[in-house]
Design brief:
With 244 residues, the protein is mainly α. The chain contains nine helices and four strands; from the N terminus they run H-H-H-H-H-H-E-E-H-H-E-E-H.
């Protein structure tokens, strides 16, 4: 809830600077939040399907954890695309408007992993290592007590991403426009690129179970795919802008 409130607050603030009312933001946010949460849960179930297949009652037990940010992004984007199509508004502008808030919300939401003692990293002797209760440790690390706080690493990196995205949004959409970009969507694509890099790095530390593709953690594969598509899309936008 704190993450959602923070994301909405920054989005409303940025929207007002562009003459967009808070009512319009809330109208779209309702669908994005609902479908984002549904997507986050379905994606988490997909990543750990054998567990949920053996424990079907846990599928609806969201209070036990199990929300995946990649699923939230997919669900939220799907909702925004449908909303924009039905209202005949520009999806890419709304995506740019939401991007900084998404990064800020993620930085706050990651702290839920700390309270749930989940998605932590490998054992560490570093002074900022966090203690994990015996029952929450992976089998291969039962003898270790302190682990990398990957939630904290990602939270800090998402704050940096948030700051960069706000700066970029103001440069592109602000009154003193300095970047000659004719097509919106750049801010959102930069968000996807940055988060893909953040998640790619974190996956090499995390020890939670996930789907493997030829021995490679699925979030690594997905991050690489998302990074490549986003980078190609932003390159195409700059190329199109120059031709025009």
């Amino acid at each position: 809830m704190a993450a959602i409130i923070a994301a909405l607050s920054i989005t409303i603030k940025l929207a007002k600077r562009r003459g967009v009312s808070s009512d319009e933001v809330f109208d779209l946010a309702f669908y994005v939040i609902v479908f984002g949460l549904i997507g986050a849960r379905l994606y988490a179930i997909f990543l750990d399907w054998p567990y949920y297949l053996a424990n079907p009652g846990e599928i609806i037990a969201v209070w036990h954890g199990g929300l995946a940010i990649h699923g939230a992004i997919l669900g939220g984007v799907a909702a925004a695309v449908i909303y924009s199509w039905r209202r005949q508004t520009l999806f890419w502008f709304w995506a740019d408007l939401a991007a900084p808030g998404l990064a800020l919300g993620q930085s706050i939401g990651r702290w839920g992993n700390y309270f749930n003692q989940e998605v932590f990293g490998r054992p560490t002797d570093l002074p900022w290592g966090i203690p994990i209760e015996f029952i929450n440790r992976p089998m291969q690390y039962l003898g270790s007590q302190y682990f990398h706080p990957t939630f904290l690493y990602e939270s800090i990196l998402n704050v940096i991403n948030f700051i960069l995205l706000v700066f970029l949004f103001n440069k592109i959409y602000g009154k003193k426009q300095k970047l000659e970009i004719s097509q919106p969507g750049v801010v959102f694509l930069v968000y996807l690129i940055n988060y893909s890099l953040i998640r790619f790095g974190m996956e090499f530390l995390r020890v939670d179970e996930t789907l493997l593709i030829f021995g490679v953690r699925w979030p690594i594969v997905f991050s690489l795919v998302l990074f490549s598509i986003s980078l190609a899309a932003i390159g195409l936008k700059f190329l199109t802008s120059r031709k025009n």
